[in-house]
């Protein structure tokens, strides 16, 4: 059967020379899932498209669970999942792209250090209302919380095991930048932000100090190596081990070529 | 002056204050909202913002693809929903007798449709247009979903408006020997046009500002669309994404929101001009 033989030969050649096969390809990938990851993956996709003419990557949102469901049903090639995969999701292939960690921030004028997990819970539930109760000066605590729907709120609540309704906040803010601004402008405020944002500002001279949420020191390094507890992985998942363009896109997302994009979203690149 | 008269005068003053105070609060709420958006957003807006694609997840570059996507999605919605709405209104007002049970059923179902949360339209559109009809995440899916959503608004406005057309107009048209369909197209619809256009303004406003119904239908892709089958992010979805998912995106969210509000005002203005023009044209008709 010459036709079949030709086909086999062509396929073998394609497998042997993936760069050649890739050079002429036109492909469309659909990526769906976590809205936390969507802006980052969109930016990575734009850069990948520029480097690979003919490839088109459509990024859609809808939440981590949707990413998992769409990949399983074959609607999406790649799913975005911004949490640890559940035990019943072990049929999927997981590729970590980045991590997102949350640390507490206080003003540099505030001498209280460190804070235990119980003290943080006390402050956020209204049991501790004055810094003097935990070894600081006699000043009332201004509690800064994140607005509903923020991913950092989810990580924080999960780590301190509180429900959204348990939190007694004085100020509710939107993004990390706003959190840094509030705490920088109020010596007796406490808040929590992405560790990437806090480190950037601490180095840039903004009067904020980053404190750990848990026993491990809050650094982007500890978030990256997975030892810091109040963090979560940002994953790209596929139904089967990825092949072709999908595999190349995932590998690209994990490569140093996109680390600047990951930093731009205040996440931490994860070592492969 | 008697105590009674004094008391009456005081009551009158309180009522006066209430009568002026309540609308003042309404206007103040709008002014506050506009001032907030202008204050935070105006600084980012320039020509480049309106004519380039976004970079860095919307924190640089512009919103050109979103402007185009929004225009296309809203145009599809209006093109599909308006004929259906006006047709249904003509059926209800001009054809069916007022007591017809079919009319009641149509009205009832449209009222239920009008009260539906928009996320339900989003899930419905995703299931029906994207998945069952195979359109995928596309401007077409988004536009059709919005059409379902604004249909009750347009229909109700058209119906009220046609009902408001004086019976004299109908009788006059028929007395001149016009056939029924000619009376509807030449006399009744032009008379009802201002009301229909008011409804259109409301519907377009709702469509432009929609996020929940569009995230799952026209989607999130921030590329310039090149076909109706492409996914495209609308302005409202972009605002939502910038304010909820992008760190440092707040200023850009405000800027985009300001453009969206400006677009709404311009559309409302144009539609009101069109309404006035049509009325004048209608008046000159023999």
UniProtKB/TrEMBL annotation, chain A:
InterPro entries: PBP_domain, Phosphate_ABC_transporter. Residues 1-23 form the signal peptide. Pfam families: PBP_like_2. The keyword Cell membrane does not apply. Residues 23-256 form the PBP domain. It comes from Azospirillum brasilense. CDD domains: PBP2_phosphate_like_1. This is Phosphate ABC transporter substrate-binding protein (PhoT family). Keywords: Signal.
TrEMBL record, chain B:
Gene3D superfamilies: MetI-like (1.10.3720.10). It is found in: Cell inner membrane; Cell membrane. It is a multi-pass membrane protein. GO terms for cellular component: plasma membrane. The chain crosses the membrane at residues 12-35, 71-97, 109-129, 135-154, 183-204, 252-274. GO terms for biological process: phosphate ion transmembrane transport. It comes from the Bacteria. Its main location: membrane. NCBIfam families: 3a0107s02c (TIGR00974). Belongs to the binding-protein-dependent transport system permease family. CysTW subfamily. This is Phosphate transport system permease protein PstA. It comes from Azospirillum brasilense.
